[in-house]
Design brief:
By secondary structure, this protein is an alpha+beta fold. The chain has 2 helices and 4 strands, in the order αββββα. The longest helix has 17 residues.
Amino acid sequence: GSVHGGWAATLLDSALGCAVQTLLEKGEAYTTAEFKVNLTRPITPRTGEVVCEGKVVHKGRTLAVSEATLKDAGGKLLAFGTETCSIFPAANLAAR
């Protein structure tokens, strides 16, 4: 059988969010506004180790956009994703 697509989505979501987190200024927080995944190849137990890498392609005052890839050890693309994050003052979290 193959691995459930939600597993790939979880890895991508982590890489996408962590990429945005690295560029936040002190006092900024974020939440996901939009998340998209494309599964390009099946992932099976024979796929072996995978590598997931994310990077930010845009960071503005209120929005950040990141992209990530999930590849097998040979570099074949298994899945990719994009994420738009809303950036806001971290102080807003304490008020909730």
